[in-house]
Amino acid sequence: MFKRIKNMFRKAAQSRLTILSVLFVVFGIVLIRHLFNLQIVNGESYQENFTMEIKRETSIPSTRGCIYDSAGNLIAYNKLAYDVTFQDVGISGTSRQRNLTINGYLYQIMQILYANGDDVYTDFAIKINDAGEYEFTRSGYNLLRFKADVYGRPYTEMPEDGDVEETLVLSKEEASVTADELMAQLGSSDYYGVFEEYTADELASHGLPESLSKEDSLKIIALRSAINQNSYQKYISTTIAKDISDQSMSSLMESKGYYVGVDVVESSVRVYNGAPYYANIIGYTGQISAEEIRSLNQELGREVYDTTDIVGKVGLEQYFETELQGEDGKKSVYVNNLGEVLKEDSVVEPQAGNNIHLTINSDYQEAAYNLLEQYIAGIIFDKTHDYKEVDNENVSTADIIIAVYDLYYALIENNVLSVTHMESSEATALEKEVYGLLQTREVQIFDDLKAELLSDSPTPYSELSKAMQVYITYLVDTTLPEVGILKTDSIDKTDDTYIAWTTDESISLKEYLTYAISKDWIDISGIMEESDFWDSDEIFSNLCDYLEEYVKSDSNFSKKVYKYMIEDDTLSPNTLCRLLFDQGVLEMDEETYDGLASGSVYAYDFIKEKIYTLEIPPSKFAVAPCSGSLVVTDPNSGDVLACVTYPGYDNNRLANDMDEEYFEELTLDGSSPFYNKATQELTAPGSTYKMVTGVAGVMEGVVSVDEAISCTGLFDAVEPEIKCWINPGQHGAISLATALQESCNYYFNTVGFRLGDVGDPDGDHDDATGIAKLAKYAAMFGFDEETGIEMDESAPRISDNAMAPSAMGQGRNAYATVQLARYVATVANSGTCYDLTLVDKITDFEGRTVLEKEPVIHGYVEADDYLWSAIHSGMNQMIKQNTYTKDIEIDMAGKTGTAEETGVPSHALFVGYAPYDQPQIAIACRITNGYTSSIASLLAKDMIRYIFNLKSKDELITGYASYDSTISGARTD
């Protein structure tokens, strides 16, 4: 420094600069050096810890509110956790030196976390797919925003008209960059230097290995990108790991002085009790998206949310987001050049979010879930037979059976067994053996495919084996578009050849691909060497080789191959069952395992036993049935006491640091665990709807309470004719109460038909008139609108044609279980239709009541007492004479229903209330594809027994499949 100043004086003399000018320049240099705390030592720069104070505004995170059940038990709350943060301060040098230092820190921290079962946290929108390649995890505007963040480009919020180009300042190249290209850029020396060439000494001195795995490279780049996005706020930390273990915390705290800028700080994680019972009600939280920032700030009318916030994604967490969130505090801090806090002032304390108190009884919620699982398992246990395949096309829906091979297929198709684990380095000897069989089969498949494409007389699609049809369809419809060879947007779907391939199935794959190439629907440039002319055999040969290599890492294609290996017994059911032990799906039982290997244990008996013991839950098979729902309400207020959908999921694995593999598994699960069966699934109500028709008929004057209508067993006033369930028998002359007791279709068909009477001398009836009258009364019972429950709910659908079948709950009637629950609650209290609610009250963090929910009346059914008496009496007698409910230990009322659907087992429904004289609860349940209402009535009976303590919990929640072999021949009404 002094040598440089001496030279400046010499030059000043030569150029006649004044000494004063030189002193001014020198003073400026020293001042700048001091401000930036830089010194030069041995040719390298370093930062010195001066006591300079820099004022920074920082936020103090608020605490998210909790969610409680009706007894005050915590359902969703915040647990103290420890996060690892990083501040990019105090690390100087050239960009190469900084990259080595920071990457070294991050890599070493990752190893500490790995050793203790922890991992880093990133919200980076690139992942490594099954093929081992980089791919984006976002699309559309969210992907463009991610790219803008990575490149440090400004943007505004997504406009209402969706004009993305005006919101993001990205170059054309940046906007179109691929995941591979972006990773290459970010890993280069221009950015984070992960892929830069370093000497062995450089790597070793910074704690880096000679080569990084692809996974570790991705994580380091993701962390560096997140750190860089905070670089404009120099003293703001970036979270690089969340909720670490005590072991990781201890190790990092011991090394805290070594890793400059790294700290371990207190935080919180969202915890959910009662998963999976509550998951579809509570939902989960996650990192806020661009659209959520815009919509939430717009809702509040001010800028409250930013990119760092965690918000509710679904369920009550989302519905009450602005109540639960609270508001961050602020404080002014003074830091030095290393980011160390010297002092703080001007603290504005954060405001904790409000607490939500539910009407839900957790005991009811858990019991309902377990009972649903037991009864669904019982149906599968009873209906599964030792067949490879069955023909269910020409049988009634009540006689549909399940072939056990469908359960074997489900073990692979529904991810009970992991096909990727069989290919991994951690695979057992048996898994490796099975994977070897797969490889052999795939080689044979592509040999056959190549032979087809090279043949002079290729086989039309319709004449191929079923297995080959499945493989080819997947390759053409999924793989070729996925890899960019088949340009689906270019295809003319009205083209005759395209129709011959997709609809008529009359041409071969070779003919279709040849034509597609000629029409420029296919781009083969990526798999062919440059040439002026490509021979067709060369094209098809290269295409087969390319596809064969590509699908080796495609687990979905592997699943299809495994299915046909099971079907032709290349992969035996006994081997498949042994894999359940190998992969830890079942706890190892050496005796059973060896028995499956030797053949002394039969796979059919084994799989039925696991169904019966619930060791493999019924949802995992994703056959019909595999799902259901049950709702319990207070008929005098609309409070929801239980709202259960089966199956559920573990929302703890989706909150905080989302388990993306688990999320994808749930998304692909054939039992649709994210789909709320209680609020979103609509089916016909079946005979549970008949109280609407009874009230409509009497109040419209087309039938009286005591009038007898003679059931002949066949209602032939409309076409097609409608059979009563008793056909070829008949009920004879019955009035309203008895018609409900017996669930006589003929009686309610007649009433529905009479509602269409327009006084025509010829006796003609108008369907639109009848439907309009039915719809008027359906609306009175709440079927015209959603129930008001604080969750996503499908809109109910009142039937708009076919008055006679609609009158017995068929036609186009379609309702969710919560809507049936509101309806039967209206019946229970004789005409007051309440909106449903999950919320009792909302309190602030000090326990003060912010909101007390009051009952909301949707409407009234203003029927006379004598009509209600007949309705109630008929439902009460239904319980007393029904084989499956007459032994219940409480006087109650109910109505069964069986909703038919072509080609699948009917849906089983029940609605009711108890006690009969002074109803305290109303109940609605549905087992989707549950075959018969008798099963739904057994489910409801056990639930009511549980609620009123009529049997012990252990007698009801047995942990085994619940079934009654006599139900197979039970009536369906």
How are the secondary structure elements laid out?
Layout (H helix, E strand, L loop, with lengths): L1 H13 L4 H18 L1 E4 L2 E4 L6 E7 L6 E2 L5 E13 L8 H21 L10 E3 L5 E3 L3 H12 L20 H5 L2 H8 L13 H6 L8 H16 L8 E4 L4 H9 L7 E11 L6 H4 L2 E3 L2 H11 L9 E3 L2 H5 L1 H4 L4 E7 L5 E8 L6 E4 L3 H22 E2 L16 E2 H10 L5 H5 L5 H26 L11 H17 L13 H9 L4 H10 L17 H15 L4 H13 L5 H10 L7 H9 L4 H10 L14 E7 L6 E7 L13 H9 L21 H10 L9 E3 L2 E2 L6 E2 L8 E3 L1 H7 L2 H10 L12 H14 L22 H4 L10 H12 L3 E3 L4 E5 L5 E4 L4 E4 L4 H17 L11 E7 L7 E8 L6 E8 L4 H15 L5 H4 L17
Parallel strand pairs: 4-14, 15-16
Antiparallel strand pairs: 1-2, 3-12, 4-5, 5-8, 5-9, 6-7, 10-11, 12-13, 14-24, 17-18, 17-29, 19-22, 20-21, 23-26, 24-25, 27-28, 28-29
Helix pairs in contact: 3-8, 14-25, 14-34, 15-22, 17-21, 18-22, 27-29, 27-30, 28-33
Summarize the structure in words.
- With 973 residues, the chain is α+β, with helices and mostly antiparallel strands.
- The strands form ten sheets. Strands 4, 5, 8, 9, 14, 24 and 25 form a seven-stranded mixed beta sheet that branches.
- The termini are far apart.
